[in-house]
């Protein structure tokens, strides 16, 4: 029970760190956006920025990606996909790299980037189950926050 609680606390700290990093990135992007708008208005005084997509359309996009991933994985064993990818990987691998390899091997082409997040999420859940079964383990982190995974030996 203590291990689970420690993992939850560590995950909470990780999430807080990522949220703060994203807030800083948003500030930078807003400044860049403002600069672009200023320059565009110099050349096109009537320029009006299009309204950002609504939350409803973003949610439906996520649902569409998730349902597409479900369709892709239908009849396939997620555990087998993850374990096979980890067996073939020379160094420990991140969840995103597992998703990327799956997308490349499934020849998803331009659809791969749209499905990356949904695939990563699905394989992350699979990895958590494999950890509980003792089949895989975390082997450190990449870029300070992404877990590296390897087969338990």
In short:
The protein is built from five helices and three strands. The chain has 153 residues and is mainly alpha-helical.
Notable characteristics:
Arc Repressor Mutant, subunit A; single chain; mainly alpha; 69% helix; extended; 2 domains; 153 residues; three-stranded antiparallel sheet
Describe this structure in words.
By secondary structure, the chain is mainly alpha-helical. The chain has 2 domains: 1-50; 53-153, Winged helix-like DNA-binding domain superfamily/Winged helix DNA-binding domain (Arc Repressor Mutant, subunit A, Orthogonal Bundle). The protein is 69% helix and 10% strand. The chain has helices at residues 2-43, 55-73, 78-88, 95-105, 111-132, and strands at residues 93-94, 136-142, 146-151. Strands 1-3-2 form a 3-stranded antiparallel β-sheet. The longest helix has 42 residues, at 2-43. The chain is extended, with a radius of gyration of 20 Å.
Total of helices = 5
CATH C-level class of the largest domain: Mainly Alpha
Low-confidence region ranges: none
pLDDT average, as an integer? 83
Order of helices and strands: HHHEHHEE
Largest sheet: 3 strands, antiparallel
Question: Strand share of the residues?
Answer: 5-15%
**The CATH superfamily title of the largest domain:** Winged helix-like DNA-binding domain superfamily/Winged helix DNA-binding domain
How many strand units? 3
Radius of gyration: 20 Å
Level-2 CATH architecture of the largest domain: Orthogonal Bundle
CATH fold label of the largest domain: Arc Repressor Mutant, subunit A
Distance from first to last alpha carbon: 24 Å
Sum up the overall morphology in one term: extended
Strand order of the largest sheet: 1-3-2
Structural class: mainly alpha
Number of domains as seen in the coordinates: 2
Helix content: 55-70%
């Amino acid at each position: 029970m203590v291990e689970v609680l420690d993992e939850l606390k560590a995950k909470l700290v990780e999430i807080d760190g990522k949220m703060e990093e994203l807030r800083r990135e948003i500030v930078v992007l807003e400044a860049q956006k403002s600069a672009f708008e200023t320059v565009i208005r110099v050349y096109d005084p009537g320029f009006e920025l299009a309204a950002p997509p609504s939350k409803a359309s973003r949610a439906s996009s996520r649902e569409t990606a998730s349902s597409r991933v479900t369709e892709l994985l239908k009849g396939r064993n997620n555990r087998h996909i993850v374990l096979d990818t980890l067996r073939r990987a020379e160094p420990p691998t991140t969840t995103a790299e597992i998703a990327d390899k799956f997308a490349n091997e499934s020849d998803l082409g331009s659809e791969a980037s749209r499905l990356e997040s949904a695939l990563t999420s699905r394989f992350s859940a699979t990895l958590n189950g494999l950890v509980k079964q003792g089949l895989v383990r975390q082997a450190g982190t990449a870029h300070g926050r992404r877990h590296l995974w390897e087969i338990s030996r």
